[in-house]
Write a structure and sequence with these properties.
alpha/beta; Rossmann fold; homodimer; 4-stranded antiparallel beta sheet; 17 helices; Isoleucyl-tRNA Synthetase, Domain 1
Chain lengths: ~500, ~500
């Protein structure tokens, strides 16, 4: 491998040189969505972050098996094993079979990911499709003495586990603190300790999603699926596990405990966590009125938005920050990102029309080298972007005859932009992706101006002809005092 | 329900009035693809056929739950329980985890379906995600005495079942003929009779897709998944089961036997089978060199094709035949379909620009009525299309001032076309769907002509300006002796 990547491993709180278990193969597992509602800003960041990781590892020669799950059962409203199943509740409210809810929102999630140019993972396992693997895992944990059954439900025994292993090693939580902060258990609670978590829950009579098990008809606990499915597709130990920082505790901490309790082996070699997003400095939340879905963002239909922001603007905005920094969404910041992206993509297009000269006034090779170094340093995309903007400056200078470039350097510059802008950062014009057509808009601007020119010259034959032919194509012109606009006939 | 639909029930070989079990709810199950290769012509017909059924039943007021499965395990190379698992083999050849093969081809299948404007079903269950349900079904069948275990595999006992029920009732096969045509069983065969079929197969050591069961680590037989998943999502008895005629035996016949053996209840009330396709009169097959994938069809890249045929042309072509007729693909027939579709869609667009008069020279209401009657008569789409073409004739006549129409009738005509062309037949311009842009082409034709006109008038300022501005938009003009062409800059 020509490039050596350093990854900030949450488990060690340090940057470590990435050494996969079985190079050139890399196993990458990322926590995917619970599909009971539309994807929102909070989904976009991990998706884009690990898309960057996936794209770069592939680019430098690794054969990556990227697994991202779909949570379609077991995620309760309260993450601490209480309340209704999120999907079950949505299904009840909408009078649907839970799998109809799952299918509907999975499709919408995929559509949003396509718009963000997020590549599909290689395997997208559903929790409900791996009940057998999850039951098998529970059996192993019970056999090894780290879980107990109570009234048909099975709970992980955190206290017992903590005597042999370190529960809290990933998140830095200390068991003594967890104990100190624990409310007194009420009589009806099945758990021996409130920080124990469910591996299997006995289904209430009204619960539709249920499967037979040695303990009861029921369903698996939320943390279990990731342990079961990562082991199924990547092995008991694998290279990288990613997700949002909010999942570190209890979800990822519990994943480690489950896997170690079952297999007596650390499941994950490198833990990666993207930091959280805020909106105008605030946490996103339904009660704060700043809960913005991706569809609302792309359409500009949420009241907090001054305008629509295209999927590629959102992608660029996310990549402008290193994934371990917090990221604050605001109209100003998004508009700035929109402009920046536009400059970058225009310069990329311009490369093809640059003329070559006898020498180069800028050091192209070092831009390329800096981009690789930035990516090798824990996927530092803002540093890549800064270097690409040095390239943008050079491109514009050459275009304006203020600088020169050799043919060889021009080829290198093009290769650098193709590699980093398109392939690794995944930034391409929205219309290329969505099939919208900026060309049509540009063309209409020109045609309207040609018509105006004809009218000014009293060439009404031409101006009428333009209007008539446009109408035949299905494009309507609207003249007003402010000028002429157009729209496509419905 | 205002409309009463008659369905040709394969089980009774007659048209029957459709009466759902629990109106207005309708349960519809259709056999989906085995995802180990690209979708081909043989996949397009059932997909479009049952999309038509789904769209129409919804249109007339039913609440349809449409379930179409993804076969990702258990479908062996030889449909009679022999040979390698189709997905396992592909995975072995491509050195992938089988679920990578499944994910890859499922996505490509969805893409093709989107292009064909085939609506997604409400639930798309995977066979591998329902192993528990399948094991449960096998247990019931064994308990009821209609299956036997041999060396860790479980087979359905067709002879025993035939003593109590009618194996062959759907396909019309007679058990005595099956027995007479049976080769002598060789010693190593585990089946008691060669027409018995596998419910569970013990996995060979090299087999990756395997699950624990009471009989062995193994995998379910191919026919089982549809029985298990239709019961899971639609109940032990449900309304409509669809699929290609080639699936009638042994697949659907075995589904009935499994469900009856397990639940002592007929699973399906209306069996619908679309007829087969041929290519230039021949069956499609890899050995005949006429195996055409949808991607090849849409791109015109197969040697049997004289040109590319758009997805909507294929959809229209399929709908031009009643689903129970055979359908022969040929270049001539496809080109004719392309022209017909173009006429239909152009007329649909033209409705918006028709002028109204004091009376109507044609009977619009009867066109609408005929369309409903045709659909009510076993989804007779060619009859709908014939009536719509009568509408096309009228539209063109009115447009050319040869006929007149009242405002009321014009609204009715528009509603009829919107309903049947767009909503029920699902015919919309390809570019609307794929984001391609015919408008751009029309506009460029006009712009090139304006430039030619400017040059003829020696107005070189304008002609140069057009070229320059186009270049800035990213559109290049190429002048040659034959005239001017354009292309989008790469």
């Amino acid at each position: 491998m020509e490039n050596t990547v350093s990854i900030y491993n949450t488990a060690s709180r340090t940057k470590e040189v990435f050494q996969p278990l079985n190079p050139p193969f890399v196993g990458l597992y990322v926590c995917g969505p619970t599909v009971y509602g539309d994807a929102h800003l909070g989904h976009a960041r991990p998706a884009v972050t690990f898309d960057l990781v996936y794209r770069y590892l592939k680019h430098i020669g690794y054969k990556v098996r990227y697994v991202r799950n779909i949570t379609d059962v077991g995620h309760l409203e309260n993450d601490a094993d209480e309340g209704e199943d999120k999907i079950g509740k949505k299904a009840r409210l909408e009078q649907l079979e839970p799998m109809e809810v799952v299918h509907y929102y999975t499709q919408r999630y995929h559509k949003d990911m396509d718009l963000l140019n997020v590549l599909s993972p290689n395997i997208e396992p559903h929790a409900s499709g791996h009940i057998i693997e999850q039951i098998d895992l529970i059996k192993r944990i019970i056999d090894n003495g780290y879980a107990y059954e109570k009234n048909g439900s099975v709970y992980f025994d955190v206290l017992k586990y903590s005597k042999d292993y370190n529960y809290g090693k990933l998140s830095g939580r200390v068991l003594e603190d967890l104990i100190a902060n624990t409310r007194t258990l009420e009589g009806q609670d099945e758990k021996e300790n409130s920080f124990d978590f469910a591996l299997w829950k006995k289904a209430q009579p009204e619960h539709i999603m249920r499967w037979p098990s040695p303990w009861s008809e029921g369903f698996p606990g939320w943390h279990l699926e990731c342990s079961a499915m990562s082991a199924r597709y990547l092995g008991n130990q694998f290279d990288i596990h990613g997700g949002g920082m909010d999942l570190m505790f209890p979800h990822h901490e519990s994943e480690i405990a489950q896997s170690v309790a079952a297999h007596k082996e650390e499941p994950v070699r490198y833990w990666m966590h993207n930091n959280m997003i805020t909106i105008n400095g605030q946490k996103m939340g339904k009660s704060l009125g700043n809960f913005i879905t991706l569809e609302e963002l792309f359409g500009g239909t949420h009241k907090a938005l001054e305008k629509a922001y295209s999927p590629m603007t959102i992608r660029f905005f996310i990549l402008q920050a290193q994934y371990r920094s917090t990221l604050d969404f605001s109209n100003d910041a998004l508009m700035a990102a929109e402009k920046g992206l536009d400059r970058l993509l225009k310069a990329h297009t311009l490369i093809g029309s640059l003329k070559t000269g006898e020498n180069s006034t800028s050091d192209i090779a070092s831009i390329r080298k800096n981009c690789y170094e930035a990516m090798n340093d824990d996927f530092n995309s803002p540093m890549v972007i800064a270097n690409l903007f040095e390239g943008v400056r050079i491109i514009n200078s050459i275009y304006n005859n203020l600088e020169t470039i050799t043919g060889e350097d021009l080829a290198l510059l093009k290769e650098t932009f193709d590699t980093f802008v398109t392939e690794i950062l995944g930034l391409i014009p929205d219309e290329t992706l969505a099939g919208k057509n900026e060309k049509l808009a540009g063309l209409m601007e020109m045609v309207i101006d040609l018509r105006k020119q004809a009218r000014a010259a009293k060439d009404f034959a031409t101006s009428d002809r333009i209007r008539d032919e446009l109408s035949q194509i299905g494009i309507l012109l609207k003249d007003s005092r402010e000028g002429t606009t157009w729209e496509i006939e419905k």
